[in-house]
Amino acid sequence: MRNRAYYHLPGLFEFYELYRVFLSLYREHREYFYDWCEIGSIYGAPSDCIWGGGRTSFGDTETEKVLDLMQEYKISARLTFSNSLLREEHLQDRKCNTLCSLLEERNEPQNGVIIHSDLLLNYLQKNYQLLFNHTFSTAWNLNVALHYTKGDGYYEEYKDGRSLIEYGLKPFTIDGTEITKSDLVRQKKMDNKFGGGVFSLNYTVNRLNASLGGGLNQYRGNNFGRVPWVKNYVGTLSPDHEYYRNKSKKTDGNIYLKANYDLTRGLSAYADLQYRHIDYTIDGNNDKYDWSKNALRPLAVDKKFDFFNPKVGLNWNITSNHRVYASFSVAQKEPTRNNYTDGDPDSYPKAEKLLDYEAGYTFANQWLTAGANFYYMDYTDQLVLTGALNDIGEALTENVPDSYRMGVELMLGIKPCKWFQWDINATWSKNRIQDFVESLPGYHYNENGSSTSLPTVQIKHKDTHIAFSPDFLFNNRFSFNYKGFEAALQSQFVSKQYMTNAEVEALTLDKYFVSNLNLAYSFRPKKVLKEVTVGFTVYNLFNEKYENNGWASSDYTDTVENRGNYAGYAAQAGTNVMGHVSFRF
Q1: Under a CB-based contact definition with an 8 Å cutoff, are residues 44 and 10 in contact?
Q2: 139: how many CB neighbours lie within 10 A of its CB?
Q3: Strand 76-81 and strand 37-44: pairing?
Q4: What span, in angstroms and rounded, lies between the C-alpha atoms of 162 and 289?
Q5: How buried is 299 (Cβ within 10 angstroms: 0-12 exposed, 13-18 middle, 19+ buried)?
Q6: Which of 4, 149, 349, 427 has minimal CB crowding within 10 Å?
Q7: pTM of the model
Q8: DSSP state of 265
Q9: Cβ(543)–Cβ(515) below 8 Å
Q10: DSSP string covering 341-387, please?
Q11: What is the spatial distance between Cα 257 and Cα 252, in angstroms, rounded to a whole number?
Q12: Rounded (10°) angle between helices 63-72 and 94-105
């Protein structure tokens, strides 16, 4: 198998005239280029495409011309939608939606989109909706919606020195040496379908607002992995070689009745009663290899959940400025797919249950807003972060039988004049696991460098901090707006965090205080443009050296007293500046 290097080139729109010449030369005179070089794709976005924000671009070539050129030379076109600050209203941008439609219509060879926004990722799936609304009278109305979403895609990774057996591949021989490990490329793919319907029947009369509603939805998903390339592989390797596949089906139905009733002037009560049933199955092989059994971990999930989630509360508007409230609710939630696939196949995770008590006070007038919210959250089988990561860097969780989160949230907003505003919010909290039991794995290291697993030891603790749950958070923002000029200084303080639930002092994230400064000026040209905004943001203004995330774990060698603690930290950038220019037409 001959190795090839695929290059992905920039400037899909900016360098159109250049590529007209270059691609012709590339096709007609391959002798000018190395024979192991190929063009995988050309990427970019038009200059006026809001979904492509964050990249400097000056391309204004018509989309049809660009796609014609790509089709002529059979090269994939990839749009770079790298704006991570998109809001929901941006999803309806006509130019960006038209651009995607053209890309889909001319999908030979297969085109693609590079995205850095979860909001946009979800939106770009194939969505179908049918909506029905009917008003029977001034008191009664009905809303019904049917939906269907088709989503598929994959991501690709280069992995070095991986055992071939993990990927269902046989060892091969080169010059008399058996090769059991090699560099390879793996693809993890999905083919998902999600459909269902929701309804609500609403009644409003005098002091009563009530709704009867519900929904029935089903998700079906195929997840599978392929290995299209292995370095120096000897033998036949199909590009469609699969090393794992599993199928999921989740049926989720619920019905609810909620009502709000005005008891007296300013005092109202509300209740929300929900019943929810989930039927969840996952069948097949996991993508994780179990070395103790020399096989991929099986997935055999067949779970049914029945939840009753009530919520009741009181709301008292004492005057137009003063308000107090109190509520109690029960919330129950099933484990996610990741909880199952990353967990122990012999002990699948349980559903969480939360009893939530809250009470608070707010004040608001023309120049001042203030509030305090007190809460106590009592958990059974809460899924908490462990500090460990899976093989693609996602955080792992585990159930803890008894835990709680309690505290107070404070907010203050001051606007003494039109051009200045000061906003503050802070949270003091206590987040604890009661009688936490730590599972500590052990190892013995042999003289030849190999290791032997020792029995896992259970260590009982008293109340411990919940991992990655700081006791104090503080946010402050000063903002100035005057005749088109805008300045904002935003600061955040986060207190110390433990990285595991065993409350090990060696495994912590230190407290940090970080500030960002944004300066911008907006003006309105007389012609063509409605508004132009030019500005820049200075991130980490005072060059704070800090980490805001990481991973951690512990084990023991030979005896529990010989404990080892290990951690990795996500160090954040020092002072850095990003400029921005936006145009409104």
Answers
A1: yes
A2: 12
A3: parallel
A4: 12
A5: buried
A6: 4
A7: 0.75
A8: T
A9: no
A10: HHSBTTBPPPPEEEEEEEEEEEEE-SSEEEEEEEEEEEEEEEEEEEE
A11: 17
A12: 20
Q: Specify the pLDDT at position 142.
A: 95
Quickly list H helices, 84-163. 94-105, 118-123
- Residue 71 clears pLDDT 90, i.e. is over it: no
DSSP characters over 205-218: ETTEEEEEEEEEEE
CA distance 65 to 495: 54
Q: How many residues in total does the chain contain?
A: 585
The residues that bridge with 332 in the sheet, in sequence order, are 353
**Considering only CA atoms, which of 23, 1, 35 is closest in space to residue 75?**
23
Neighbour-count burial of 400, counting CB atoms closer than 10 A to its CB (0-12 exposed, 13-18 middle, 19+ buried): buried
Which token pair is 142?
């009905």
Contacts of 364 (CB under 8 A, 6+ apart): 321, 370
Q: How far is CA 153 from the centre of its chain?
A: 16
For residue 264, what are the contacts with CB-CB under 8 A and spacing of at least 6?
none
Cα separation, 396 vs 500, whole angstroms: 11
> Can you give the pLDDT at residue 104?
66
Q: To which residue do tokens 């990481």 refer?
A: 550
Question: How confident is the model over 157-170, as pLDDT tens digits?
Answer: 889 999 999 999 98
128 Cβ neighbours under 8 A, 6+ residues apart: 147, 148, 149
Q: Is the pLDDT score of 80 beyond 70?
A: yes
Edge to edge, the sheet with strand 437-445 lists 451-460, 437-445, 547-557, 559-571
Side-chain-facing half-sphere of 124: CA atoms under 13 Å = 25
Q: What angle do CA 13, 19, 23 make, to 5 degrees?
A: 140
